[in-house]
Design a protein that fits this description.
Heterodimer of an alpha and a beta chain. This is Pyruvate dehydrogenase E1 component subunit alpha. Its EC number is 1.2.4.1. InterPro entries: Alpha-ketoacid_DH_E1_comp, DH_E1, PdhA/BkdA, THDP-binding. By secondary structure, the protein is an alpha/beta fold. The protein has two domains: about 325 residues, Thiamin diphosphate (ThDP)-binding fold, Pyr/PP domains (Rossmann fold), CATH 3.40.50.970; about 30 residues, no CATH class. The protein is about 45% helix and about 10% strand. It is built from twelve helices and eight strands. A six-stranded parallel beta sheet has the order 1-7-8-4-3-2, with helices on both faces. The protein has a two-stranded antiparallel sheet with strand order 5-6.
């Protein structure tokens, strides 16, 4: 029988785990300031995560999802976006939000259960955290459809985890995007675990990137622990989407070094040896090794950065903890545009009790 179609999925990587170069670097990698800004953003994110976990453990923050081991995914992707592009993040994409101007205390407010954290300082058109798995994908397709109808040279960027690719929401959004050739980039952080479910029990596909082929567009696999590779793939994908070439799909292969959230105990479903082996691949040490080898970074720089991050994080924590709690009746304020009578009555009752 004749072969009517052939497909391929390519893998992108530039920096080895020890910081050495595997293949010629993209042009932007000659910009020391850019590489250092990527490094600084990843370090800030990791230290911020550590502080957030400490706050949660001491009862001053709600459940929190860390980015440990996959900082390069959200930072690398966000760094390739323009301000006018639209970000649709999952609950593990603080790195992208911080890059786009969201304040640390606003992120803490959200995870502290305060809706004011979603009224953040980043671009007003960016979407808030999406906690339901995969439900932001149809939203992203809708955003991209609107951008195309308006003939605006903007791109929707949708981030989610590998578990989301097992949801119908994601494939339906991808299929719609492919049919209408929408300006959208789907980014899956394949960190190998959907909470406690390993990738091998989610799909029999050799890659997640190949799922884009069924939707009619290009899927690429990227070393998600190599921020240079992430930035390069993001630049190309965003440019293609912006220039009318339709959707793109990036599978960022990385590893979740921490628990799924602060409510999880990953030691119940994976071995310490497995995690320890993966620490050798993590993105921050990888980029630091490269920067040091290229004489772009040194011990004094590292110490100065640690001090700056500490001061910035502690100041944000102080502002977060000093924020007066909202009145209890405000829990109804973001449910409906016009609050139904039954809820309006409950809101009024709460307001009366509070005033009394």
């Amino acid at each position: 029988m004749p072969v009517i179609a052939r497909f391929e999925v390519r893998h992108r990587n530039y920096l080895a785990p020890n910081g050495s170069i595997n293949r010629p670097l993209p042009a932007f990698a000659s910009d020391a300031d850019l590489l250092i800004s990527l490094y600084r953003a990843m370090v800030l994110l990791r230290l911020f995560d550590q502080k957030a976990v400490a706050l949660q453990r001491t009862g001053r923050l709600g459940t929190y999802a860390v980015s440990l081991g996959q900082e390069a995914v959200s930072v690398g992707m966000a760094s390739a976006m323009r301000e006018e592009d639209v970000l649709l993040p999952s609950y593990r994409d603080n790195g992208a939000l911080i890059w786009r101007g969201v304040k640390l205390e606003e992120i803490l407010l959200f995870w502290g259960g305060d809706e004011r954290g979603n009224c953040f300082s980043g671009p007003v058109h960016d979407f808030p955290f999406c906690v339901p798995v995969g439900s932001q994908a149809p939203h992203a397709a809708g955003v991209a459809y609107a951008l195309k109808l308006r003939k605006e040279p903007r791109v929707a960027v949708c981030l989610f985890g590998d578990g989301a690719t097992s949801k119908g929401d994601v494939y339906e959004a991808m299929n719609f995007a492919g049919v209408h050739k929408l300006p959208i980039v789907f980014v899956v952080a394949n960190n190998q675990w959907a909470i406690s479910v390993p990738l091998r029990l989610q799909t029999s596909c050799e890659t997640l990137a190949q799922k884009a082929i069924a939707a009619g567009f290009t899927g690429e696999q990227v070393d998600g622990s190599d921020v240079v590779a992430m930035r390069a793939a993001a630049e190309e994908a965003v440019a293609a989407a912006r220039n009318g070439k339709g959707p793109r799909f990036i599978e960022a292969v990385t590893y979740r070094l921490g628990d799924h959230t602060t409510s999880d105990d990953a030691s119940r479903y994976r071995s310490a040896d497995e995690v320890q082996a993966r620490w050798k691949e993590e993105p921050i040490a990888r980029l630091r090794a490269y920067l040091v080898a290229q004489k772009m970074w040194g011990k004094a720089d590292e110490e100065r950065l640690a001090s700056e991050c500490h001061e910035r994080i502690e100041a944000a924590v102080e502002r977060y903890l000093a924020t007066a709690p909202r009145r209890p009746e405000t829990m109804f304020d973001h449910l409906y545009a016009d609050l139904p009578e039954v809820y309006a009555a409950q809101r009024g009752e709460l307001a009366g009790e509070h005033d009394a």
